[in-house]
Amino acid sequence: MRFLGVTETCDLAALYLRLAEAGHEVKVSISEPLAQGTLAGLIARVGADWRAELDWVGQAGEEGSILFEAVSEGFGALQDALRRDGYNVIGGSGFGDRLENDRAYAQRLLAGLGFPTAHVQEFSDPAEADAFVRARPRRYVLKFNGGSGTTFVGQHRDGRDIRAMIKARLRRQQGSAQDRETARFILMEHIDGIEMGVGAYFDGTSFLTPACLDWEHKRFFAGDMGEMTGEMGTVATFDRSGSFFERTLKLIEPQLREAGHVGYVNLNTIVNEAGIWPLEFTTRFGYPGYAVLDPLQQTGWAELFGMMGRRHGEKRFITHSGFSVGIVLTTPPFPYSRKEVDEPVGLPILFDEMNEQDRCHLHYGEVGLDGDQLVTSGLYGWTMVVTGVGATIETARAEAYRRASRISIPNGRYRLDIGTRLIDGDYAQLERMGFLASG
After folding, report:
1. Which positions ≥6 away from 182 have C-beta within 8 Å?
2. In the predicted model, what is the mean pLDDT of the chain?
3. Which domains does the chain possess?
4. Contacts of 259 (CB under 8 A, 6+ apart)
5. Per-residue DSSP letters for 308-339?
6. Which residues sit opposite 66 in a β-bridge?
7. How does DSSP assign 113-132, residue by residue?
8. Is the separation of the CB atoms in 53 and 29 below 8 Å?
9. Taking the CA of residue 175 as centre, how many other CA atoms within 13 Å lie in the half-sphere pointing to its CB?
10. Which of these ranges, 26-30, 281-285, 307-311, 417-421, has the smallest mean pLDDT?
11. Which H or E run contains 185?
12. Residue 382: which of 350, 422, 359, 414 has the closest Cα?
């Protein structure tokens, strides 16, 4: 099969490598200038003008696919247009982009489907938002729309930390009209409970099954301290997901079908005794989510993409039972970017006592070759994901950390507590509350 990856920073590096290792033809177009070192010497690279490769994809007929990574402005509509032109496009849609980027819209849609939703207010005027919090003091979660993806979880019950964050953040974005538009944000009432996600692949008409359940760790430091990052580690499983999927993602299937969405869809939630509270969508291949799922998917990526592209074929793929634990290994400037903090790339990545099975659990991110030496690259410092699998969270976690301990990267760092809250009681509480299907 032939695959053309269209990406800004190449978050799906490990996926492209898996496809190439399986014997498929893969080309990747990376548009971000600071990410040009990613996959250097590892995958065939093409210029930023990926449209020049459309004939190459088209010549493969049904065996040719275009993979889109991002939900940047216009990417979803572009994918819709390419599908109308007859190309097999996997990644997202215009509707999917709106679900992820316009959080107030997503909350209204979910409320219309019968979900209990936290009270959400959307703003662009900081003074208006400040007055709102003063009149209704409580804990809030502050989320900015669009590409910034910034989230701040308030701690003070009078909302004073949220008011300070609104003023500080938006003071920097009051220049042009475009800045003010991208500074639109929402305030969501804080909900106590266990954060839990559900994800599945959509083939344009329906979801493929099984769905997965995941528990993300977004804070930079152990103990859930520090900056909110894209992700520092995840626990995932395909087991016991059916009932939660039916109560959540399955309900939005008609809207995704109408939009012709093809790709991965994840809904992040808070669950408690009162029910399932939806937080936000990811309507693309999340990083590191796809890497954490990789060792649990017995069906290979190419076959899975074929199922998504055919639409009317097999709807169920084969998975392994048990859990996968993924640990994100990062280097500076993460959790920022090299546009904000000038940090070197090209740091050597060294391995100690790794067998073939261990190496199958290394999912490269922003890396490339310098001669024959694997080195860091890219915009963010998302260096790689290391996974472990097992019948229990404990055994999967132990395997992941055993492998991570055998990797040496100058200034490398990762959290040491991925999965501990689930082990210490959250998973048992989810069972007690009835959110996990019968084993």
Report:
1. 145, 146, 147, 148, 173
2. 92
3. 2-99 (3.40.50), 119-189 (3.30.1490.20), 194-433 (3.30.470.20)
4. 80, 93, 94, 95, 96
5. HHHSSS--B--B-SSEEEEEEEE-TTTTS-TT
6. 4, 89
7. TT-----EEEES-HHHHHHH
8. yes
9. 4
10. 307-311
11. strand 185-189
12. 414
By CB neighbour count within 10 A (0-12 exposed, 13-18 middle, 19+ buried), where does 29 fall? buried
Cα 410 from Cα 327, distance rounded (Å): 17
Rounded to 10 deg, the angle between the 301-310 and 13-21 helix axes is 100
Burial class (CB in 10 A: 0-12, 13-18, 19+), 379: buried
User: CB under 8 Å to 418, separation ≥6 — which residues?
Assistant: 217, 232, 233, 234, 235, 325, 326, 327, 397, 400
Residue 25's pLDDT band, with cuts at 50, 70 and 90, is very high
Measure CA 103 to chain center: 16
CB environment 328-358: b (16+ within 10 A), e (fewer)? bbbbbbbbebbeeeebebebebeeeeeeeeb
DSSP three-state, residue 231: strand
The token duo for 271 is 């669950």
- Matching residue, tokens 């039916």: 246
> Given a cut of 50, is residue 176 above it in pLDDT?
no
Residue 406 sits at the vertex; the CA angle it makes with 401 and 412, to the nearest 5 degrees, is 85
pTM of the model: 0.91
